[in-house]
Amino acid sequence: RVCRKVPAMVEKNSPETPQQIALGIDLGSDRSVSSLLVGPPFGQPTLVRNKLSNDSTPTAVAFSSNQKRCVGDEALEQPASNAANIVADLPKRAGASGPVSVGYGPDGASEDFSLEHCLAMFLHEVSGDAAAHKGGQAPSRTVIGCPQAYSAAQYSAVADAARIAGISNVSLASSSTCLAFHYAERHGGDAFPPPEATEPRLVLLVDVGCSYSSAAVAAYHADMRVEVLASRGTDRVGGGVADEALMGHFRQQLQSKHGDAASGAKFEHRLRRVCEKLKKLLSTVESAKVDADSLLPDADVTLTLKRSELDAMLRPSLDALAGIIAEAVAGAG
How far is CA 45 from CA 3, 23, 144, in A? Predict the structure, then answer.
């Protein structure tokens, strides 16, 4: 269990307390968000915009020939012809063994990078954006929120990546802990029971991300303590999981009709983009179709699907989500 007291806002700066800059990074499999908290006096956190003025940054890096490295939005904007050199979904791949081989050397020669080094490139970029936001002053402390379902090896990989990136004073926290304190910060006094209350206010917190999801029960006490009573996580629920289900469905269809033409890095890159678009459409309509331009080299393809078919594909994920919610509630007693 995690139990911390939410500090009251400091009204004025003390001469004995130098100003601190804390950077918080919500490490997402698809996109990551960061914010700064400066104090004392501590006010509200400020979102850090990246170089393109976006509030979130794709958690990806890419490589091209002659040692050009791209991070974030620039990585995902690489053409399909360079899809094999895009390293995405970094948080989910953290802790995996084996290097990533990319065309990064002179004239596109292959070079190997560990996944920790790839993640370090991304964290270095995010930390640099935060420093630029404060006139070049680096954060004095960094907290990285990691998926609840992370293993010890994955936590270790993120810590190694932060060290490689040159980020000092790093703490790692589970997504459920971060969400519990965010709920208190967002709702203020309304998150807590009245001072005379003897029982805490219990809140079920459910977070559905791209590749990971979590459920937690948090207790908010009258003395402003926040206690995470129980939490569970899974990598079987999320937007990215839905994308993979759609990709598997259409990959099988296309390969049965077009053979090896429906394979390879370019095909997978384009198929993912089409499936993401189809998924969004099915959130508002009962059936949808998407023209998949350039998906295959010698054929025009239109992908169609009904929402009922998508629901059937995602039934195992919905069951997994219900399972972690039940486990979190049971674990909280």
Answer: 21, 9, 15
Closest CA to 202 of 193, 194, 210, 215: 193
Q: In this structure, are strands 86-87 and 61-64 parallel, antiparallel, or unpaired?
A: antiparallel
**What is the DSSP track for 163-181?**
HHTT--SEEEEEHHHHHHH
Go through 69-78 and write b for each residue having 16 or more CB atoms within 10 A of its CB, e for each that does not: bbbbbbbbeb
The H or E element containing residue 102 is: strand 100-103
The amino acid present at 328, given as its one-letter code, is: A
Interacting residues of 135 by C-beta distance below 8 A, sequence separation 6+: none
Classify 10 as helix, strand or coil. Answer: coil
**Which of 129, 113, 107 shows the shortest CA–CA distance to 62?**
113
| CA–CA dist 174, 151 (Å, integer) | 11
Q: Are 240 and 210 in contact (CB under 8 A)?
A: yes
Cis, peptide link before residue 41, omega less than 30° from 0 = yes
4 band by pLDDT with thresholds 50, 70 and 90: low
Question: Each residue of 203-213: pLDDT tens digit?
Answer: 999 999 999 99
The rounded distance, in Å, linking the Cα atoms of 300 and 293 is 7
Q: What is the DSSP string of 275-313?
A: HHHHHHHHTTSSEEEEEEEEEETTEEEEEEEEHHHHHHH
- Phi and psi at 297, nearest 5°, equal -70, -25
Cis peptide before 40 (omega within 30 of 0): yes
pLDDT digits (tens, 9 = 90+) for 283-329: 999 999 999 888 888 888 999 999 999 999 999 999 999 999 999 99
